[in-house]
């Protein structure tokens, strides 16, 4: 939605843009027609629930550290105490936040929840081990909303589009600002090139890489004075126990890690602009995807006859 003055009244998240690349019709039904998925109460703890609780727990863990110590820098010597004494209380707070439980409410939700807590504890201890290896580093923000204004050409002239995203964690290590995304799945970190991130016909399109690069755009827009490298990173839970775990994106074409979003900014923002301009082009319909694999688990498949 764009106001008469040409300003966007809604903001595009990276997940919404990924939906548009997956299937224009799904984007239309979900974001324009505002047809929401059925809000079912799930008995099982799925990856999304686990991921949400993990996000909250990590946020409570490090925010609690900052409040207790009154500092943002984590030294190697800080991690033993965090592992021993603060992981479980942080998970407890994460569970309470996710299930909207009052401070003194009982959290004995189920036997399954107890298992999830135990598994969560193992993941968080492992994340702390990885962070201890990287220490010292300075925490800049946790779970913070970032926004940017982005100009695109439309048939009605130039419009300012609002972009938004919550960056799980921003920290600074050895003069580099790391934009960290926690993922509960096994998201890959390598991608062919920037164009592939916006190629809806590429079956290996790396959605997670597109998202963490997007955070580079948002961070720089909110901190235009920044001249430090912006390094996207993915902490994907299915890989963190590997000995050679590396959280950084890798450009297969250049055979190198992405050291700084700014080096990719012109190409990335050009591809993003092209996609947004297509979205605002009345000549381009909100058509169904031709890839039926994407329809298998789509909540809108009954509506569109797939």
Textual characterization of the structure:
- The mean pLDDT is 91.
- With 306 residues, this protein is of the alpha/beta class.
- The chain is 39% helix and 21% strand.
- The strands form two sheets. Strands 1, 2, 3, 4, 5 and 7 form a six-stranded mixed sheet that branches.
- Strand 3 (137-154) and strand 4 (157-173) form a beta hairpin.
- Helix 1 (14-22) packs across helix 2.
- The two termini are 29 Å apart.
- The chain contains eight helices and nine strands.
- The chain has helices at 14-22, 24-32, 47-69, 79-98, 111-134, 207-222, 265-279, 301-304, and strands at 7-12, 73-74, 137-154, 157-173, 176-183, 190-191, 230-236, 250-251, 256-257.
Tally the helices: 8
Helix content: 25-40%
Mean pLDDT: 91
Radius of gyration: 21 Å
N→C terminal distance: 29 Å
Query: Structural class given helices, strands, pairing?
Result: alpha/beta
Instruction: List SSEs in N-to-C order.
Output: EHHHEHHEEEEHEEEHH
Largest sheet: 6 strands, mixed
Number of strands: 9
Strand content: 15-25%
Which of globular, elongated, flat, extended, rod-shaped describes the shape?
globular
Structure at a glance:
This protein has 306 residues and is α/β, with parallel strands linked by helices.
Describe this protein with a few key phrases.
39% helix, 8 helices, 306 residues, alpha/beta
What is this structure's SSE topology?
Blueprint: E1 7-12, H1 14-22, H2 24-32, H3 47-69, E2 73-74, H4 79-98, H5 111-134, E3 137-154, E4 157-173, E5 176-183, E6 190-191, H6 207-222, E7 230-236, E8 250-251, E9 256-257, H7 265-279, H8 301-304
Helix pairs in contact: 1-2, 3-4, 4-5
């Amino acid at each position: 939605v764009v106001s008469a003055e040409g300003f966007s009244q809604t903001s595009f998240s990276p997940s919404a843009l990924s939906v548009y690349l997956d299937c224009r019709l799904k984007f239309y039904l979900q974001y324009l027609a505002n047809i929401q998925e059925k809000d079912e109460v799930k008995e099982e703890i799925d990856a999304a629930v686990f991921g949400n609780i993990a996000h909250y727990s990590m946020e409570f863990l490090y925010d609690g550290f900052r409040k207790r110590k009154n500092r943002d820098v984590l030294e190697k010597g800080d991690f033993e105490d965090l592992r021993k004494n603060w992981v479980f209380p942080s998970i407890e707070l994460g569970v309470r936040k996710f299930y909207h439980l009052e401070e003194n409410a009982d959290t004995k939700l189920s036997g399954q929840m107890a298992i999830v807590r135990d598994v969560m504890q193992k993941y968080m201890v492992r994340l702390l081990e990885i962070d201890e290896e990287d220490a010292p580093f300075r925490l800049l923000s946790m779970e913070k909303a970032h926004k940017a204004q982005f100009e695109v050409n439309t048939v009605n002239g130039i419009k300012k589009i609002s972009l938004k995203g919550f960056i799980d964690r921003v920290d600074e290590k050895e003069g580099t600002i790391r934009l960290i995304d926690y993922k509960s799945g096994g998201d890959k970190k390598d991608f062919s090139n920037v164009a592939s991130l916006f190629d809806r016909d590429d079956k290996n399109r790396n959605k997670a890489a597109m998202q963490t690069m997007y955070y580079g755009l948002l961070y720089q827009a909110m901190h235009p004075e920044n001249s430090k490298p912006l390094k996207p990173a993915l902490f994907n839970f299915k890989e963190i126990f590997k000995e050679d775990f590396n959280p950084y994106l890798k450009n297969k074409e250049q055979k190198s890690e992405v050291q700084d979003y700014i080096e990719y900014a012109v190409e990335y923002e050009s591809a993003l602009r092209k996609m947004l301009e297509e979205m605002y082009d009345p000549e381009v319909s909100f058509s169904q995807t031709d890839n039926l694999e994407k329809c298998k688990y789509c909540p809108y498949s009954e509506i569109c006859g797939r």
